[in-house]
Design brief:
Number of domains: 2
Distance between the termini: 49 Å
Strand content: 15-25%
Keywords: FAD, Flavoprotein, Oxidoreductase
Largest sheet: 5 strands, antiparallel
Number of helices: 12
Number of strands: 14
Organism: Paraburkholderia atlantica
InterPro entries: CO_DH_flav_C (IPR005107), CO_DH_flav_C_dom_sf (IPR036683), Diverse_Substr_Oxidored (IPR051312), FAD-bd_PCMH (IPR016166), FAD-bd_PCMH-like_sf (IPR036318), FAD-bd_PCMH_sub1 (IPR016167), FAD-bd_PCMH_sub2 (IPR016169), Mopterin_DH_FAD-bd (IPR002346)
Structural class: alpha+beta
EC number: 1.2.7.4
Pfam families: FAD_binding_5
CATH architecture of the largest domain: 2-Layer Sandwich
Order of helices and strands: EHEHEEEHHHHHHEEHEEEEEEEHHH
CATH class of the largest domain: Alpha Beta
Strand order of the largest sheet: 4-5-10-6-7
Helix content: 25-40%
Radius of gyration: 18 Å
């Protein structure tokens, strides 16, 4: 690991200003992705700007229509929050199954979304629930936020402040996980609302994506059978030592069916 400076930001504006002043600096949230790359000397930030102690980024608010989670809230706090578990249990369960206990205690929702790992779970929740990512300067719809592998619409010095999740009528997340990393080989988030059904998939492609065929089938008939009847093309899906593109394509409707079963239980 190379040497670096460290400072603790007191508010979002100060954090953004510090990064604007030094283009080689990086925001530090949970550090679950950044610090390993630094240890391997794959990243060499001149300065780490710690945003985890900013009070505005540590709050969770819940009402009947929306769950708002501060960017520096860790996965464990989302999983254990009583109102999140009551109003949006699919999101709480998703958070409870990210990584291991240590990762959940340190990793943050804002860090996960900003990193946009192809196999991360939170992007599927954001896309599936049509979430809004709130930054220090604008509001970004989830459909516009995820650009590609490890790429988002964030400007280099832009800081995620919170994530707003609309509360659906029904929702669930199912993940076929890598047993070592607990990342998703394939993860499927299904959400049913008055506007129809959204199905978001992570782990299967370079970035999170929606499946129109499943959304159409489940909007017409919200049953596991309708999901299993859909065929997903393996074209442009990931293929690696863990799973072929064809296997990932096979898993998507099966996991969607399991999610529907869970959502309607």
């Amino acid at each position: 690991m190379y040497s670096f400076e460290y400072q603790r930001a007191t508010d979002p504006q100060a954090a953004a200003a510090a990064l604007t002043a030094d283009s080689d600096a990086k925001f530090l949230a949970g550090g679950q992705s950044l610090l390993p790359t630094m240890r391997l000397r794959l990243a060499q930030p001149s300065e780490l700007i710690d945003v985890t102690r900013i009070p505005a980024l540590k709050t969770i608010s819940v009402d009947a229509n929306k769950v708002t989670i501060g960017a520096a809230v860790c996965h464990a706090d989302v999983a254990e929050h009583a109102d999140v578990r009551r109003v949006l249990p699919a999101l709480a369960e998703l958070a409870a199954n990210i990584g291991d206990r240590q990762v959940r205690a340190l990793g943050t929702i804002g860090g996960s979304l900003a990193n946009n790992d192809p196999a991360a779970c939170y992007p599927a929740a954001a896309m599936g629930l049509d979430a809004t990512i709130v930054t220090d300067r604008r509001r970004i719809a989830s459909g516009d936020f995820f650009v590609g592998m490890y790429e988002t619409a964030l400007a280099p010095d832009e800081l995620i402040v919170a994530v707003e999740f609309p509360v659906p009528e029904r929702a669930a997340y199912e993940k076929f996980r890598n047993p070592a990393s607990h990342f998703a080989l394939v993860g499927v988030f299904v959400a049913k609302s008055a506007g129809g059904v959204r199905v978001a998939v992570t782990g299967a492609a370079p970035s999170v994506f929606r499946v129109p065929e499943l959304e159409s089938a489940l909007s017409a008939n919200f049953t596991p059978e309708a999901a299993r009847a859909v065929s997903v093309s393996p074209d442009e899906l990931n293929e690696d030592m863990h799973a072929s593109a064809a296997y990932r394509a096979h898993l998507i409707p099966l996991l969607a069916a399991r999610a529907v079963t869970k959502a309607t239980a």
